[in-house]
Write a structure and sequence with these properties.
The chain has 216 residues and is an alpha/beta fold. The protein folds into 2 domains: 108 residues, 3-Layer(aba) Sandwich (Rossmann fold); 89 residues, no CATH class. Helices cover 54% and strands 12% of the residues. It contains 8 helices and 5 strands, in the order E-H-E-H-E-H-H-E-E-H-H-H-H. Strands 2-1-3-4-5 form a 5-stranded mixed beta sheet, sandwiched between helices.
């Protein structure tokens, strides 16, 4: 495994320099014991309750780019505290990143309470996906019930994602609006056909078109 060492102290007092060095030394020994290759060492002085930390963004970017697949920390509180800790643990879990700690001398073992919270977060996230998909399905069904035939109009349905997907077909927005769909329903309908768009964007494009027409 390729790992990132992450060490943190809460203040920038000189005495904390010793703590950072101690954390890193212990983490290097941990890596040796578990035959883990260290590719990056990140240290920072910031509160564990603070989410917007340069070190955190750096390690997340490295993981996203496939530079490493394991995180080495002294214990989970070095990653964060309170809600910040749960949010980061959940994000790393979604990215399939292994977490090793000095405290456990191996993979992180969550407390019963943290494990329960993580399960709840996962369940909520799953239901959010279900609600999102249901909205897409309802929007498409309503549009078709009102006589809308997307296959005859949306020429880029089967194309791969890319920048062009941000170019919305205003003529389709107008047709759906004429069929009494709300902007939210239009957004979900277009999303179902391959256009990633929010309700606000649909509303904005519609207003822009109306302004242009009024000027004419």
């Amino acid at each position: 495994m390729k790992a990132i060492i992450y060490s943190r102290v809460s203040t920038d007092k000189q005495i904390q320099e010793t703590s950072l060095k101690r954390q890193q030394e212990e983490l290097r020994k941990l890596a040796i014991r578990h035959h883990i290759t260290i590719v990056r060492t990140i240290e920072e002085k910031a509160s564990g309750y603070e989410l917007e930390r340069d070190g955190i963004f750096e390690l997340l970017e490295l993981f996203s780019n496939g530079k490493a697949d394991c995180l080495l920390i002294q214990d989970e509180t070095r990653l964060g505290r309170g809600n910040t800790k749960i949010a980061l643990l959940h994000q790393l879990e979604r990215m399939n990143i292994s977490i090793y700690t000095v405290m456990h001398d191996g993979e992180l073992e969550l407390s019963e309470s943290d494990s329960m919270v993580m399960q709840i977060v996962g369940i909520v996230e799953e239901y959010q996906r279900k609600i999102h998909n249901a909205k897409i399905s309802r929007g498409i069904k309503k549009a078709m019930a009102n006589g809308y035939t997307p296959g005859n109009n949306l020429s880029r349905i089967n194309q791969s994602p890319g920048r062009e997907r941000k170019e919305l077909p205003i003529e389709e927005i107008l047709k759906l609006r004429d069929r009494n769909l709300t902007f939210d329903e239009i957004a979900h309908t277009l999303t179902g056909f391959g256009y990633e768009v929010s309700k606000a964007t649909v509303h904005r494009r519609y207003q822009e078109y109306q302004k242009l027409e009024n000027r004419k």
